[in-house]
Every structure is written in C-alpha cells, then in structure tokens.
Amino acid sequence: MRIGLFITCVNDLLYPGTGRAVVRLLERLGHRVGFPLEQTCCGQMHHNSGYRDLAVPLARRFAAAFRGYDAIVAPSGSCVAMVRDVHPRLVPEAAGTAARTYELSEFLIDVLGVTDVGARFPHRVTYHPSCHGLRLLRLGDRPLRLLRAVRDIELVELPGAEECCGFGGTFAVKNADVSGAMLADKCAAIRATGAEYVTAADNSCLTHIGGGLSRLGAPVTAVHYAEILAGRDA
Amino acid sequence: MRPGGDPLASGVPFPEAARAALTRAQLRRNLHRATRTIRGKRGRVVAELPDWEELRAAGSAIKSHVLAHLPELLLRFEEAATAAGARVHWARDAAEACRIVVGLVRETGAREVVKVKSMLTQEIGLNEALAGAGITPIETDLAELIVQLAGDSPSHILVPAIHYNRREIRDIFRERMPGTGPELTDDPQALCEAARRYLRERFLSAKVAISGANFAVAETGTLVVLESEGNGRMCLTLPETLISVVGIEKLVPTFQDLEVFLQLLPRSSTGERMNPYTSLWTGVTPGDGPQNVHIVLVDNGRTAALADPVGRQALHCIRCSACLNVCPVYERVGGHAYGSVYPGPIGAILSPQLTGVAANRTLPFASTLCGACYDACPVRIDIPGVLVHLRRAAVAARPGPSAERTAMRAAAWAMGGGRRFGRVLRLAGRLTAPLRWALRGRRVRRLPWPLSAWTAARDAPLPPGESFRDWWARTREEA
C-alpha cells in the first residue's frame, strides 16, 4: 500500500513536529510513507471564506499530487473533511483521491486495524473533539480509543467537550470578540480538568486553544494527538 | 434592534452588535441557562424516538417536494380554503401584506386586535403598520407580551423574552401593564396571574384576531397553529374575524403529512413530546368560531430564495429554533445581535436571502461552521453549507478592492506550486528568525493589524524555522 502524507499548510509551516510524528508512527507500524512535494493546501480557508474560485485550482492540485497513492493520511480532521466532502464538488477528478483520504485515527483504526500503537505518555491529558472531525467526519471516539491504549496516560474527560472552541478559521479574526468569549469558556473547562496537556485532531483549533491558555498563563500545553501516539516523551 | 426599523436588517454589522451584546453579563447568564435547559430537554425527548433520523429525512423530503411544486400546491390550497368559506389574499411583499391586513381590520371597525405569536407578522412589521393606522395590536403569547410592553423586540424565535429574567419582567409589568401595581412580586405564578387577568379582558372584548400558521394543508385548505399557553386557542375561536398571515413555504401537501411535522416540531422546539395546544381550522364553521376567515399568503423574498438551488433549503424551516439553542455563537450574543427577527443560525441563512445579501453582508460569517445546527435541525437544513454558499455572494457583493481579497489571492498564488510554496515557507521561517531569537520559545503576544484581532485574546505561535517539507527534503530525499 502506497501511503501519502498530506501534511496540510498550517502544519507544514507551524507544526512540522506533528508531521514528523505521523511519519515516525506509521514507520514504527511497518509502513512506508511518501510525501508528494507538489501538495500545498486543501483550499479550505478560501472556500469557507467565500472565495470558491480560488479553492478550485487547489483542489485540482491536491488530486494531481496524490493521484498515485492508495491511501492519503492527514493529521487534521478539518482538512480531510474539506478534501472528502468539498473537493469532488469543486473538481470531478477529485472523487478518487477524496475517497482515499483519511484522518489519522480513521487510517489507524479502520484501515490498519490498529488501536494500540505502542506509545507511552505519562501525563494527565484531556481531549477536545474538534468540530469537523466530530460532525463532518463522524470520527466518534476513534482518537480517544487510540489515546486510551497509550501506556501510563491519564485521560480526563473534558466538560462540554463537544462544544466548539470558537476558532472557525477566519471567524477568529472577523468575529474576534465572540471567538474570544467561546475560547474563554473552553479554556475554563480545560483548566477545570487539571490536565497538563489538551489534545485534539486539529492543530488549527489547538493554535487557538493553546494561544488562549498561554495568554491566561495556564500550565496546560496544547499538543496534537499524533505527537502523543508517536511517543512524544519516550 | 428596536421595533420600527427594517425587521430583517438592522444595518449594524454583526461583529459590532455582538461585541455590544457580549458586555451584557445578565444577558449572557440568562442565555446560558435557558439554552442549556432547552437543549437538555430536546436531547432527552429526541433520544426516545428510534426513528428520529427517518422522521428528519421525511420532513426534509416533504419540504423539498413542496418547494418543487409550490405553484400547484398554492393554488390547490387557495381552492380548498375558498371552498371552505375562507377568503384568500396574496401579498408580494411586506408592504402589500400590511396593507391587506390593515384594510381587513378597518372593514370591521375594530380599534384593537389580539394576536397569536407569529414570526411572519414580525417579519413584515405588521404591529407598526397597525399602530400607524390607529389600531392597537395586543400580543397574547406571554413572552411576546413582555417584549411588546417593554417596547423591545424578540431575541429568540420560540422564547422571545429569553433575554429577560423574572425581576426584569416584574418591573416591565409594574410599569407598563394596565391594572398592575407596585405590589406585584417576581414570583412566576404571580407574574402569570397578572398577565392572565390582563389578557382575559382583551380576549373577551376582541372582535378581530391575527395569527400566523405553522402549517397550511394544500389538500384541505386547513391551517395549523401549535402553541403552549392556550392564548392561541382563545384568539382562534373567540373573535368574529380571524386573519391569518401565512408564508407561502408553510404548505404541506396532504393532511397525513402533518403526522411527520407534529412529531418533529414540539420535540425540537420546546423539548416536549407534544405541545399543549394544537389548533386546526378549515375555513368557516357556521355558528362556531370566527365567521369571517381571511388568509393572507405572503411571498416577501421567498420566491427569490426559491430560485437559489443551494439556498432554497432555508425555506424548509419550521421555526423550531433548535439551531439557536445548540449554537455556541447564539448562546454568547443572543438574538438581537443578528439584527433580524430571525436570529441564530437559521437567521444567518434566511435573513440575507429574504433581504438580498447586500443588506445583510456580515450574517453569513456569524458562525464557526461547527455544524451543531445541522445535526439539530429537524428538517435537515445544511446550515453550514448554505452559510458558505452565501459567503461567496457576500464577498461578491462587496464593492471595490479589499485587503482580504488581496490576501486571499496572494495566499492562493503562494500555494499555486509545490516549489513556490516551499520558498514562501522558507521565507516565512527566515523573516521570523529574529523574533524566535528574541522570544526564545515564548509565544507572540501582540501582532500588527489585521492579526491584532488574533492576539487580542490569544498568543500566537511562531514558525519553528524549518518547514515540514524542508525537513523531509533534508532527511529523506537526500538519503
């Protein structure tokens, strides 16, 4: 099986560590990972902000870049939802790549049939199910199942977990006050758990949440769950 | 928003109105408590039904069918209602609808009308039109009455006074409700009793009632109103004249179709298995109830929405307000921030379509696209999908060049090639190097405009310096 990593533009620039974690994890499970350098961005920001025409060539580029791969894996629920739900509506030739694109937890559990990835993370962690993974991909408890199998992890439930953190892409800037009010509630819920780490399937939401926690001086670190599964502390 | 302006577009941009609403601590507490209570009730009664998803699919399918066959169904409704003794009137827009209703009330000589809660009469500004013609409209739904007495406008489709607590309501009654004095307490029972006494006199003396309708059955010409308080039943049965103002999208084809909606609506709106009062009437019944029955069918922008293949699903809406109660944005800012009688997620897709997007450009952006509304909608309106669709129209409606458009184009250009994108990421890494050195692992606390909106509430991360693709090229491609 030829596995292609779709890093996503946000991770490429800001969170290369999450990408390295996915590579390390999949290689540890005995798979080879490819990275087509022609990939750039899924076009979600353009599409969801009202610039559909600018998203079309990005969808076309994605389909062309990953044409030769059997499975395309991305550490982002939101970007996978864009590829899977929207790309085929933008460009017909994207239907094939769209159907073969998986969020990391889907790929590990549904395709590889793995739940215990052999990780150890001796910390108190709470999980925020980011909206697009939850409601567009219907990831359900897949990321949590992977996390529960991690050695020495202490998972604590996040109150109001399924409520949006207030990121929403350009919403965070266009409606900064409402976004900030939602963030304040999410940060309060996270702090109430006493967790050292808050994790999720999307670094975009985690940038928002982590930035809020950091502003509050809260001793909680935001980290993508791929980095926990890759044995971040090991 | 205050009564008197455009009921569908206040003119205040959503971010601005939301900012003001966020400063009202009491409002936020009320909303938080109220939306969570209804959300919980809804969740419990929806979970009881094993065929809830099938009901949603059926509701959506019936509404799609209605929209696809609207002209025939409207004519069938008119024919059936007329045969049953009702007079059917057609109104293209708000002004025409108000003119018709005012004319009908004048014919009766009545100076006062009692009203059943109706979103459409708010949408067309009927109370203001009546008042302008010297006719006093009395809202008889308790929450609508509170809002009317306060000189305010509703902030929720189903719970119009959700933004008031009982002490505030006591004060409104004390000051504004005839026959109520300073002895009134904020005990809910006492507040209800005061309203009941006041309204009872109005019901018994009213010659004319005005209602909306939740459903209109094309096959039989029947109108249906669902309510909780019994005030509707009073209005629909006691006066001589009944004028119902009905949106053209309210049709269902057959009487049997009601079985779907009478399950979907109460559970989604009040979180009840069944609402306390369901009134159905078909034209005139001689010797029983109103003997002059009028139905005003209103378009007011609906035909324009119908012409949009993506946007038209907003016309499926049965005004349950489940989407408001689950919306994290609505919960923080309340209904008035949306500047329209239709607030919340449904308002954000309905108002811009009824007014044209140019008059409501900020509403399609008043959402994080979290999707909670879509999951809650009993007729499966893809609200996030329609929001994104309307954002395109909003961007297109903005005149001239904009910083955002330029930034979007620049980003799309940078992402137009793998090598080019790599160079841009490398440049970003180099340009931020001095900051990385200066901050030594700390986060960025302040950024220049427009990213200052980001750092107002949260710190920003810095690129670590080497992009993923550069790491890949360095460690993998060369090996």
From TrEMBL, chain A:
One matching Pfam family: CCG
Domain Cysteine-rich: 4-83, 125-209
GO MF annotation: an example: oxidoreductase activity
Any GO CC annotation of this UniProt entry: cytosol
InterPro entries: Cys_rich_dom
Chain segments annotated as transmembrane: none
Origin superkingdom: Bacteria
Name this polypeptide is given: Cysteine-rich domain-containing protein
Organism annotation: Thermobispora bispora (strain ATCC 19993 / DSM 43833 / CBS 139.67 / JCM 10125 / KCTC 9307 / NBRC 14880 / R51)
